Amino acid sequence: MLFSASPLSQHLLLSPATTLHRDFTFNHRRTLTPRPKMSLNNNNNNPNSTLLNSLTNLLWGKSLPPGLLITTVRTAWNSIWHLMMSQLAPSDPSGSYSRPASKFRLSGPSTTTATNLHLYVGLPCPWAHRTLIVRALKGLDDAVPVSISSPGPDGSWEFKRANGSGSGIVSPGLDKANECKTLKEVYRVRKNGYDGRSTVPMLWDNDSKDVVCNESYDIIEFFNSGLNALASNPDLDLSPPHLKEKIQQWYQLIYPNVNNGVYRCGFAQSQEAYDRAVNGLFGTLDKLEDHLANSRYLCGDTLTLVDVCLFTTLIRFDLVYNVLFKCTKKKLYEYPNLHAYTRDIYQIPKVAATCNFTEIMDGYYKILFPLNPGSIRPIMPSSSEHETLLRPHGRESISSAIPLLVK
Ligand SMILES: N[C@@H](CCC(=O)N[C@@H](CS)C(=O)NCC(=O)O)C(=O)O
Asked: Which residue of 22, 177, 381, 400 sits 20 to 30 Å from the alpha carbon of 164, by its own alpha carbon?
């Protein structure tokens, strides 16, 4: 961690022998003034800000001159921010975020014969959320058990909490397949080892002790059609042959502009990169809003994989992306068709139980430190509350076809 209390800070905070407890000090004009009594228990419990207060007092008296304070912090913060962003969110030369490619791929639904599978996810992650939804709709809960990690202080995935919140909503727990403490450890125990990015979702083969796949789209295609012998809802097809081309066309629009588009807004490292991303995002949302006025789902009357992919971004939109990633032009709530479409999918049996809003908010606001250094989690917008999402969506008027055979 960048600003954790070091032995030096502990010394400054605790040692009575330092100048901190003198009654007088020079202020920044070099005149002698009574030192205000310093309290080690000030209202701000953050040891880092106490350290900075102590240092400021030590060097300049009661407060740093505002001009100097702002210039110094701005210069230091800009350099540190760019350093952090370049390592955490790689970008191209124009400052646009470029998402690293997934390492372990499946090139079709039947490219693995493994049947003793285990799924690793994290609940804030929209890519992992796709796999939880398709797993639930297909009835693969028993066939593919899941371990749910949560982000640790440095943002990497950890297993540290007892399973189950008792609410019926998915919640983080321990690693049930390998009993590891972190996801990094799981990737490392694979037979050939691995030292790259340890991302969720990740599908694991318990027999060969190896990673099967860590690309969400491959995993949902595989769950949709590659495990029907084990699924309790094998008749549900979220990628029927006659819609495959349409699904791909929508996905090619939605992935860069919406799914990854929100990240391209949030992780942009130049104004130009942000402008490009935000125009692509809202231009696409406008198009989707129009299309969904007369189409219940993206490809017509049938829910498909591309709806699942769109849903996991939309459900996080007002909650996180609108604020943290500066996707501010409009809230999802201001798009009546998109919001109703989101409610429609949320109300499909088993979907709401895959949405853990507390984990999503904590995962973004508390962990994406470079974007929210104070780690304050804003209040939940009412448009994202469970009760709001249960309001009638009225989309049966477009198509009353029973969309799913959820068993
Ligand atoms: N293209 C991948 C993206 C997966 C991804 O980026 N997951 C993020 C969480 S949202 C992650 O695990 N990041 C950890 C890291 O980069 O170390 C997919 O669709 O599965």
From this structure: 381
